Amino acid sequence: AGHGDSPTSDTVATEQGRVALLDHVLQELALHRPILVSPSMSGRFAVPFLLARGARLAGFVPIAPAGTRDHAPERYQQLQTPTLILYGDGDTGLGPRALQSLRHLPRHRVAMLRGAGHACYVDRPQDFHRALLAFLRQLG
């Protein structure tokens, strides 16, 4: 949506449009209760989707996502989607800012990866996968 080499799109200019697009993708892929993994700028899609359609997800894994502060703590408190909040301890921007908002989710766990920056999955892939797999196992 205007990042990297992707063209701008009126479809995703609004939060409702981004939710509708992600909803459409999940329907087309016939995914039943998927786990949504959302790093960085994808949070502009994933966080509104979580708030609007969280019951459709088996789990949510935000990795220092953007857009978390656009919503009040009360909106997060209403959700029951199991969530693993992941970020690197070297991320001084989006990681801690997202945590401030997402910690209001009632069913969350936090995994801070030591020695990792914003792209913690690149900096510490083994630690990232270990935390992700433990969360997935817990979901059953």
From TrEMBL:
Signal peptide: none
UniProt-annotated location(s): Cytoplasm
Keyword Cytoplasm found: yes
Keyword Cytoplasm recorded: yes
The organism of origin for this protein: Crypturellus undulatus
Chief place where the protein resides: cytoplasm
Gene3D superfamilies: alpha/beta hydrolase
UniProt protein name: ABHEA protein
Record key words, sorted: Cytoplasm
